[in-house]
Amino acid sequence: MKLNKSIILAGTALASLVSVSGAYAQSTGTEATESTAVVITGSRSPRSIDGALTKENITKSRSTVTQEFIATQPSGQTILNSINLVPGVNFTNNDPYGSSGGNIRIRGFDGNRISLTFDGVPLNDTGNYAIYSNQQLDPELIERATVNQGTTDVDSPTASAAGGTVGYTTVRPTDDFGVNFNLGIGSFAYKRAFLMVNTGEIAGFKSYVTVSKTKYDKFKGPGVIDKTQYNGMIFKGFGDVGDYVSLAVNWNENRNNSYRNITLADFKTNPQLDYDATCTIPKAVGGTAQAASNCGNYFGQRVNPSDTGSLRGKFKYHLTDNLIFTFDPTVQYVLANGGTQTENVNEKNSRLDNDGTDTAGVGKDLNGDGDVMDVVTLWRPSTTNTHRYTVNSSLIWDLDDNHRIRGAYTLDYGRHRQTGAFGYLQANGDPVDVFGGRDNPDNAVTSLTGNVLQNRNRFSIAKLEQFSLDYRGQFLDDKLVVNLGVRAPKLTRELNNYCYQPSGGDFPRCTSEATSGTPTASGNVFFPSTGSTPHIAPISFVKEYSKTLPNVGVSYAIGDSQMIYASYAEQISAPRTDNLYKYSRAAAANSPLVTSIADPETTQSFDLGYRYQSGSILASTALWSTKFHNRIVTTYDPDTLLSVDRNVGDVDMYGWDGQIGWQATEHLSLYASASYNHSELLSDLQLTASTYLPTKGKTLVETPEWTYATRMQWDVNPDFRVGLQGKYVDERFISDVNDAKSDAYTTFDLDLNWDIVPFGLEGTQLQINVINVFDETYLGSLGSTNNTVVINDVDPGTPVVSKSASQPTHSVGAPRTAMLTLKTKF
């Protein structure tokens, strides 16, 4: 470590500062566009502060962490936790090791509004834009991770990034043969193994394969977290100008029991509250009626299985000396479900015997006792299967040494299948198959006519096409840099609901039973078992969203070590699939289909920043402002499997981000960051034609006003390193009217690393990580609602309402956790 740092410091002292941001880019096209940036000549600062803060030279707010820092974090940890020190970012992990998911926010924007990519591949869900932090690449394979606060790159393949981007890049194979092996143990029976084999160069090609296995107990309540991941890459460079082609593969499997989210009141009385360890299924007895099982809180029925994979290509080629072509194709696969997964079904339910009632008729024997008198608990998964195909390509033209133009085209095509084929439970309450009857006909619950009982049955296509144009110019001896960009995304959602949908309701009715009465003039129908509730018959429809989005940045170098920059960007977040499947239609003839969320969200973001990069200091600060139109707040309810949407209207947001890194000595580095976030809802939330929720002037939910982070790293000697880092998160509101909030909290993490050179073990290290050193008890990921206290203000003429209260549920932060990792390579 001592030697490496000395080389870095000496090298930067002898050379002028050149851009290193190209390697941080999301796509090959952005990498090539930024790779020759020239700014701040003569700077003698280090290129990074132990990987936690890296030199940036682009015309917008950006922060980067590298493998040097990522390697200090717990083995197997999600990369989103490793960017938690970055200003503007707040990530809350659902467990200490990162395999149970979590929640990320950047400048108050949640993960659904942040574009996440690796090697340029979009990772947000095609339907709801969600980010699944537990499915990310093994950290040993990540070269660096970059955060764009508030803006996208001009070729970002997204229709949802209203709040910024996170992109990380994969390490390339090495020139020589080598093996890396990491073995970790820790609290809560944690065990992890990671193996990587580099083949070295063979016939001009370099490649590697990796496998990792992680398994541990939940830190509260019964259950296990189980994750397996495979990766591989083959790479070939050609020519002497950096051209290359690569192909990489990733496969990730998670089989996790879920943690129980709890209310604020539960947290104050019993933060360890979790699911039950056992379940009793009533024994089937012929001739008598059995009630449903009372296992709604059984941990074995709270699971989150997922299989995800990708095949990623990257290609860069100089067509001429000043014309570069890049091409990044990708294929992705997802099979996943989660949340509460059971339903109590009467054996005479009309969906089973098709007679139109739930209390009479033939019925279907579900538990095999020879009668149809029972209520049986069935496994009811909500499964999503996605096949996704993406192309991101660029043509880059250098007009001369100071002017560059890029045109880019993106196609992101996702086939999104949402089903809910019921299955059976075992005697202990566990499901026979976590995916129900989807791929297991013997486990599928069927009606008397042979139809599979379904919770939902949808097929959607999300097609994003985007053209973008980008100009970069350098003026005044390269001191002035101007970026002018525009992108034009067009998202088309094709939606097919094969079930009946309650008009304005949430729960589809997948049935072949006969309708009753006379359909309405608009075609809405009724069922005997649901009374007067109108249902819309199976339907297909298309929604399109498009907008032209400017992306402008300017920077100016002041002397050899300072830079000021300003940027402006417009973004769009189109409605999500589930939002559009909640629709209604009036009874009158020719009534149109009306979706609950009609308009996309849009933002206009401004940044004004300053960077100081000289001597032993890297520092940056930025003032920012965002105008947010048509904001939609979405809260997932694990008990109903529904995402509850609230359109809170327009929001004004502004704030400040700052960070500084100091290489105090050759052996000691210090880092600190701080962020301030102010948000204000500009109107009351309309609930009905004449009633409103008093939200005007309130703060956005789940958004801390202040966050602080710090890290100290001390190389005690060439073989022993100590790191200590901390994060403070301010209070966060959990309701739109700001009548309840979670407490602020501070956590500290410790990392120790020892190169075992004295024992002759070159290339072998022992690393200790302690998470939440002082065992802080706190709430991590939050839920939210309209109001947690009853509102009973009906004063005539004022925009308020009498409204009942509801209590959202939240995730408890991980307790103190220790782990030991042995790292070796040869």
Automatic annotation (TrEMBL):
Signal peptide residue numbers: 1-25
Compartments reported by the entry: Cell outer membrane
Bilayer topology annotation: Multi-pass membrane protein
Record motif TonB C-terminal box, residues: 809-826
Species of the source: Asticcacaulis biprosthecium C19
UniProt KW Transport keyword: yes
Ranges annotated as spanning the membrane: none
Chain ranges of the TonB-dependent receptor plug domain: 55-163
Every TonB-dependent receptor-like beta-barrel domain range: 246-773
Chief site of localization: membrane
GO cellular component: cell outer membrane
Alphabetically ordered keywords of this record: Cell outer membrane, Ion transport, Iron, Iron transport, Membrane, Receptor, Signal, TonB box, Transmembrane, Transmembrane beta strand, Transport
Gene3D superfamilies: TonB-dependent receptor, beta-barrel domain (2.40.170.20), TonB-dependent receptor, plug domain (2.170.130.10)
GO molecular function: siderophore uptake transmembrane transporter activity
Keyword Transcription: no
Family: Belongs to the TonB-dependent receptor family.
InterPro entries cross-referenced by the UniProt entry: Beta-barrel_TonB, Beta-barrel_TonB_sf, Plug_dom, Plug_dom_sf, TonB-dep_rcpt-like, TonB_rcpt_CS
Highest taxon listed in the record's lineage: Bacteria
Protein name as annotated: TonB dependent receptor family protein
